[in-house]
């Protein structure tokens, strides 16, 4: 009979090598898993920092927008107040002009009526 390849001693050596390979593979996986856990924690820290930073910037932008709105409203209110003041002054000036024109028109109408009456009297006197 022929001898089989691999005696018991050879088989146990192969099993020992395969166990060592599996153990080293498992250790490598565990090491990578630890690295990935550390990386994930670092990534989460960075994400939290970015979220807080974005919240901070959003708050600053809202505050700046509110300040800009308030400043714009104040400036517009001042300009509207000035415009109203100018309108009131123009209305007052127009009323004074109307009053003056009304008096002038009455005086002119009175003068025309007087001339008309004088002319009619002259015609009566002349034609008789």
The tally of structural domains comes to 1
- Compute the number of helices: 1
Could you name the ranges where pLDDT drops below 50 across 5 or more consecutive residues? none
What kind of assembly state do the chains in view correspond to? Answer: single chain
Structural class: mainly alpha
Largest sheet: none
**Intertermini distance:** 180 Å
| Shape field | rod-shaped
Helical content class? over 70%
In short:
It is rod-shaped and about 155 Å long.
Description:
It is built from 1 helix and no strands. By secondary structure, the protein is mostly helical. The mean pLDDT is 85. It has one domain.
List its salient traits:
128 residues, mainly alpha, 0% strand, rod-shaped
Any chance you could write out the topology, listing elements then pairs?
Elements: H1 8-127
